[in-house]
Amino acid sequence: MTAAISKARRGDPVIILEKTVQLGKKILASGNGRCNLLNEQLDSSFYNPEARPLVNSVFSRFGRNEILNFFSELGLHYYSQDGRIFPFTNQAASVLKVLEMEIRRLGVKVEYGFDCLSIRKTQNGFSLQAADGRQQTGQNLILTGGGCTYPAFGSDGSGYKLAASLGHRIIKPIPSTVPLVVKDPICHLLQGQRIIARAQSRIRDKVGTPVDGELLFTKYGLSGSLILDISQEISLAINRLNIKDVSLGIDLIPFIEPKQMETELLKRRKTGLSPEEMLTGILPNKLCVAFKQLFEKDNPAKAAAKLKNWRFEVSGTRGWNEAEFTAGGIDTGEIDIQTLESKLVKGLYLAGEVLDVNGVRGGYNLGWAWASGYIAGLN
Ligand SMILES: Cc1cc2nc3c(=O)[nH]c(=O)nc-3n(C[C@H](O)[C@H](O)[C@H](O)COP(=O)(O)OP(=O)(O)OC[C@H]3O[C@@H](n4cnc5c(N)ncnc54)[C@H](O)[C@@H]3O)c2cc1C
Questions:
Q1: Boundaries of each RsdA/BaiN/AoA(So)-like Rossmann fold-like domain copy (predicted)?
Q2: Residue 78 near residue 87, CB atoms below 8 Å
Q3: Exposure check for the chain: N or C terminus, fewer CB within 10 A?
């Protein structure tokens, strides 16, 4: 949509070919329906290293300020919460609506239900064929088919296939920002329970940076913002590098220092509390029951140490229906970082998640989609 807008603002005729019956379905789902549309701190360090030259080049021309001006001019009001930017309405639908209004104002034609199956380079440009037999031709083509996550919203990896058919190299797409599969019966027992915790990944001998946030126990393992935030490097290790030795150390009580925790548990034991009551008021009741065996077997010092570093062996990640982003995609080395034109196919431009550009959570993926689309449309 931003690609169509910048192109149409130059007076060029534009047509959007959209597979589904609606534009921007993923925007509606973003940020739990609130749409975290950008981050105050927008720079390439929040993206995968291979993509940084391209990301730098795009943001140097259409970065945080330009993106916010763009939305302001469309009439969107927004606010910041811990650096993350949301529409003032707290409704992702507002973000989609202002884009649709601008598309309409500019007279951009949208052809819905056009599920593009093939792209052929012709003498004058491109010829596209849809699943229902429809055809479209154009002089230039901006391919913004997205990644593989939440295929029900339209993007199912077909953008990669179309780019590959034109000769582009695809870095294996893997789910990123995704819940983790952990075969520990405690997860099943505690499913649905949320706590604030601190997690640290261990991939072989490499220990990651601690991350704080909300942990959600599920019947298959672990989820919640904490897990989504830490999952990128874990998914890469498991799904791309085939590393089996991956675990998480979780501090279930991050708000109490280890020594203080030990002292508190010793004091509680002296008062004659039952094993089940030892963590009452510290952890939710369901967890007090789940961890009671710690106080039947271990002394309080050992129990405190275990609760401050509970180890979960990670056996896998959940799939495309639960991941927020795709890591991988079209090799950014094959794109002109100034224009976003393919170095292999003249007149073909690429933008958004279909490229091997993935940012951390917090508005970075939409930030990339807005900016790269806008720059691709300028050229
Ligand atoms: C649940 C969820 C929450 C998210 N929350 C956030 C958030 O708060 N902040 C953030 O920054 N990012 C978030 N993201 C990620 C963000 O939504 C994406 O990175 C972004 O939408 C990518 O934009 P895009 O235009 O490249 O691709 P998409 O938004 O996926 O759009 C691609 C479009 O191409 C169409 N298409 C695909 N294949 C074809 C084809 N063969 N023919 C015709 N049309 C086709 C699709 O139907 C779709 O409309 C979230 C993602 C999910 C799944």
A1: 1-378
A2: yes
A3: C
pLDDT, position 379: 84
Q: Is 288 left (phi over 0), alpha (psi -120 to 50) or beta?
A: alpha
**CA-based angle 223:160:101, to the nearest 5?**
80
Shared domain check, 148 and 244: no
Q: Does 145 share its domain with 276?
A: no
For the chain, what is the domain count? 2
Residue numbers of the chain with a pLDDT score lower than 50 = none
Interacting residues of 26 by C-beta distance below 8 A, sequence separation 6+ = 146, 150, 153, 154, 155
- To test the ligand 1 pocket, which listed residue (1, 26, 96, 357) has its Cβ within 8 A of the most ligand atoms? 26
Residue with CA closest to ligand 1 atom 6: 30
Residue 33 near residue 91, CB atoms below 8 Å:
yes
CA–CA dist 366, 69 (Å, integer)? 15
Among 300, 317, 334, the domain boundary falls at 317
Q: Which residues lie with the beta carbon below 6 Å from any ligand 1 atom?
A: 17-20, 25-26, 29-31, 35-36, 114-116, 144-146, 149-150, 154-155, 158-159, 324-325, 352-354, 363-366, 369
The DSSP string of 350-377 is E-GGGBS--BPTTTHHHHHHHHHHHHHH
C-alpha 144/C-alpha 348 separation (Å) is: 11
**CATH number of the domain encompassing residue 74:** 3.50.50.60
